[in-house]
Every structure is written in C-alpha cells, then in structure tokens.
Amino acid sequence: MDDKADKLKLRCEVGLLGGISLIAGTMIGSGIFMSPQLVLLNIGSPGASLVIWACSGLLAMLASLSYAELGTIIRESGGEYIYILRTAGQPIAFLFIFTSVVVVRPASLAGVSLSFALNAVAPFYQDCPPPDNVVKCVAAAGILLLAVVNCLNVRSAMKVMVFFMAAKVLSLAIIVIGGIVLLVKGNTVNLENSFEGTNLDISSIGLAFFQCLWSYDGWNNLNYVTEELKQPQVNLPRAVMIAIPMVTILYLLVNVSYLAYLTPREMISSTAVAVTWGNKVLGGWGWLMSVAAALSAFGSLNGTFFSGGRVCFVAAREGHMPDILAMAHVDRLTPSPALIFTTAIALIVLIPGDFQSIVNFFSFTAWFFYAITLCGLLYLKTKRADLPRAYKVPILIPILVIMAAVFLVLAPIIDDPQIEYLYVTLFILSGIIVYVPFIHFKLFPGLLNRMTVFLQLFLEVAPAEKNL
After folding, report:
1. What Å distances lie between residue 58 and 92, 208, 247, 401, CA to CA?
2. What's the pLDDT tens digit per position in 436-462?
3. Segment (H or E) for 405
4. Strand locations in 271-404, DSSP E?
5. Percent of the chain with pLDDT over 70
C-alpha cells in the first residue's frame, strides 16, 4: 500500500473534445434560460441587453486567454487558487480557498441545482409554482447523483459532460432557428427602436453584467484540471478559442430569437424566458423547453462539480485544507474525499438557497479574485519573463480584464451602497482568523491526524502526487 501510495496520480483523461465540453458544457447552463429577462430588466432596452451579452462574451474570452497563458506557465490544477499561491503567497491564496470552498463554489452548485430542479418539475406544476420543498429535494438528488458519477470514474464524468453539451447545443439551436424563421418573415417589431429606455445608471449596468456573466461562468473551468488535461500547453488555448466564441455566438442568437417572439414587457415579466418562448412558439410542446433547460443546468452542474472538487484537492495538497482531501481512491483514481466534501457543503448551502442572491454574491466575489489572479499574470510577464510558456497574450489583455473586474466589484458599491457588500468583504477577511491558528501555527495536529487515518481506511484512499 505504501509503495502504491507513493506513485498514486490522477489519470490524464481529458482531451481536446473533453476540454471544449468542460468549458462550453459548464457555461451553457441555467443562465441563458433564466438570466435574459434579468439583464433586460436592469439595462432597460433590448439593444443595450444585446450589447451587454456581447461585451460579457468578449470579457470572458479575454480573461480565458489570459488564464491560458497562466496555465502554460504554472502547469498545475487548481485555477485561481494555485495561481494566487504561486504569485501572491499563502495568506491571499488561503483567503481565496476559504471563500471558494465555504461559500462561492457551494453557492454556485446550489444555484445551478435549483435551476435544474425548477425546470425539471415545471411540467408537473403547469398551473401553479412548484412547492419549495419539492424543488430542493430534486436539486439535492441531482447533486448526489453527480457526486456518485464523479467519484466512480473520471471518464464517465467526461462522457456525461459531452452528452449534455450536445443536448444543450441542440436545444439552443432550436431556439435560434425559430427566431431566424420569424425574422426572415419580416417580424422585427420588437427590435425596432431597440435602445429606447436604456438605463445608464452605473449600478444597473453592473447588475446587468453580473446576471449576464453568470451565464458565462465556467470559462475558467479547464484551468482547474490542468494536470488531468492531455498536452495542456496545446489543448488549453485551443479549447478556450473554440468553446467561448461558440457559446457567445449562440447566446447572442438565442437572445435575438427571444426578442423576435417576445416583447420586452413579456420577457421582463417571465420567470424563465425560454419556457415562455416555448409556450408561445411550440404551443402544447412548450414543456420541452423546461426539459431542455433542466438538461442544460444538469450538464453545467456536472462541470461545476468536476472542477470544484479539484480545487479542494489541490488546496489540501498544498496544506491549506485537511490532508484527507488531498487523497484519491486507490483503484478509481478519483479525488473522492474532496468531491464528498464539496457535496456536503453544497447540500448545506442549498437549504436556505435563493437563486437571485446566489448569483449576485457569486459574481461579486468571483471577480474580486479574478482581478487578483490576473495581477499575478502581470507580475509573471514583467518580472519572470524568463519562465517557459507555450502561449502568450499581449499585456494589454489582462490589463483590460483587470479594469473590467475592478468596475464590476466597485461600481455597484459606489453607486448604490448596500450592507450586503460589507458582509461579503468581512467574510472574506475573516479567513485570516482561520489561517493564523490552523494553517500558520498548525494547532490540533493530533486530532486531524487521527481523523485522517480513520477516513483514509474507510474511504480506501491514499495521497496523490502531482501530474507534472
């Protein structure tokens, strides 16, 4: 067992198609089926909402290209966590992992699972809203099912990702074709005077971006599994350059299709715009859009789950979380303890879960750490230009993304201060209270060691080395 433990590594099972599916499959989730009406509500006009969707896609593309360079310099899994650790040091990296593991990742999983559950049960409650307990039970079942799949086999998890990506692209293609048919017939009433009523308040623009960027979340997922990616120096940039433009074009065409059939008032009053579109266009078959939205959210949930478990795994390997989370199953070679831990936290967050608050909190916190990560890239480009890298982006690109991230973090606070933003900031800083005694001074090592030995035997796991 000791000899096997020394050589235990996660398998490199993710190829180019798997990488594209992980990015696009996670991005195309609940957002495009639920966020368009919220973007329109905040920005005020159809034309401006399309501009927000296009700018969000461009921002995701520029950020992912910057991350691709980071991934070819620091060829380790973990995404933002490992990049911040290698460039800014342990305290800031711990603040990220503390916030990510305790709130951001579980909140993201809870938000997507709630969206999946709402759409999955909608056909059974066509005349009334589904009971809250039913929705949360279905959401919990979805999380548990994906936990089992991801713990059993990496290849099975990737097959699920590829299948659901194909299903959701087909669903969006149906919406796009429907819109093109109507526009070809000359029905462009809803797109006339499309910028009338645009809301240019800074806080409104920021909230519109938050809701839109929720739909683009997942652009950085491949960086979380770099060590499991075949030829990362080649496949990481290629997957990014294929997946994100494809998703951006799809999103824009889908929004045009929504606007071709629905008036702005109909979109704003809808709770799920894709379902409203389906009821109007497909008639008695409108429930298919609920099924499509559920499948889309389920596939996105799988991608979020797959990458989220790797963040816990890498953080534990670096000593910022309990050692048991840095172990992999001795036969299946999956980071099952980290996946189980992620599942448990997500189920706890799901209990009081609210989709709207989850989106706003996640976006605000995420872009704060994206800015810190890209500052690390600027450091590597200016101070460590000697490091080998297979891919480079012009320095202007990360600078533009940092400026956008600063705007997204500060603009809503300055224009419309709310006490919730203070709570978020205090929560992030509270990680120092955990870091000093438990990480820096390593208190209570004996108790943690006994728990680690027990769980290691119970879960049949062993420490895993880096795939370098």
Report:
1. 28, 15, 11, 10
2. 888 878 776 666 778 888 888 888 888
3. helix 396-415
4. 327-329
5. 94
